Amino acid sequence: MARILVVEDNERLARLIADGLTAQGHVCDCVLSLGAADDALHAAQFDGLVLDLGLPDGDGVDWLRQRTGAVPPVLVLTARDALEDRIRGLDAGADDYLPKPFEMRELAARLRALLRRPGGRHDAILTLANLVYDPAGQSVHVDKAALELTRREAALIELLLRRAGQVVRRAAIENSLYTFDEAVTPNAVEAVVSRLRRKLDEAGAAVELHTIRGVGYMARARAA
């Protein structure tokens, strides 16, 4: 699972993209301008960016070229399909280029390919004790038996496994599990942790989710 930022000024198209990617198990935020994209990238960590080029407050290619902050892998999505436009976008820092109109399945597949690139977050299987998580297939196994998790439960175990043995702060968990538009109740994270703990215990996972009161959670192997 990944958190994706969709930068597209056609609100209906942005929502269609977000809905399609959410159906693939991702968390998606939509913004309608480059200024809002800057704010979003400053406020949260994203794994991928779907970027239109003709935005109300500027050109996406110029924005890419001029940005000084970190930018996740970028899939440019635009009606500009001339060769020179594609070259200009790629040279500015885009990782892939998909012209409009497009098929949602292809967009999702191209994003998966970007996320799987060597060195990316989604290129390695995560293992702790007898628990195995495959980011590419979004599958969880305990002693080779499949464990059925909800989207948020899978996102939580992935986040904790990537930092196994380290404390993951509650704010970082909220950032990974919820979009900006979703209301997060005071006990929302605790509820997800509780459900995940129960499923891990029932499956016989030799992994515990340790609570650091007032701070966050840590995944660690159970003591023998």
CATH topology of the largest domain: Rossmann fold
| Shape summary | elongated
Order of strands across the main sheet = 2-1-3-6-7
| Total strands | 14
The mean pLDDT is: 87
Task: Please tell me the CATH architecture of the largest domain by its name.
Answer: 3-Layer(aba) Sandwich
What share of residues is helical?
25-40%
The assembly state of the depicted protein chains is single chain
Overall tally of structural domains: 2
Q: Poorly predicted ranges (pLDDT <50, ≥5 residues)?
A: none
The CATH class of the largest domain is Alpha Beta
Number of helices: 8
Order of helices and strands: EHEHEEEHEHEHEEEEHEHHEE
Decide which structural class fits the backbone.
Answer: alpha/beta
Strand content: 15-25%
Q: Kindly provide the radius of gyration, computed on alpha-carbon positions and rounded to a whole number of angstroms.
A: 19 Å
The rounded distance between the terminal residues' Cα atoms is 31 Å
CATH superfamily of the largest domain: Response regulator
Task: Provide structural commentary.
The chain has 224 residues and is α/β, with parallel strands linked by helices. It has two domains: 3-116, Response regulator (Rossmann fold, 3-Layer(aba) Sandwich), CATH 3.40.50; 126-221, Arc Repressor Mutant, subunit A (Orthogonal Bundle). Helices cover 40% and strands 24% of the residues. The protein contains eight helices and 14 strands. The strands form four sheets. A five-stranded parallel β-sheet has the order 2-1-3-6-7, with helices on both faces. Strands 8-9-10-11 form a four-stranded antiparallel β-sheet, covered by helices on one side. Strands 12-14-13 form a three-stranded antiparallel β-sheet. A hairpin with a 2-residue loop joins strand 4 and strand 5. Helix 3 runs parallel beside helix 4 and helix 6 (151-162) packs across helix 8 (188-203). The longest helix has 16 residues, at 188-203. It is elongated. The two termini are 31 Å apart. The mean pLDDT is 87.
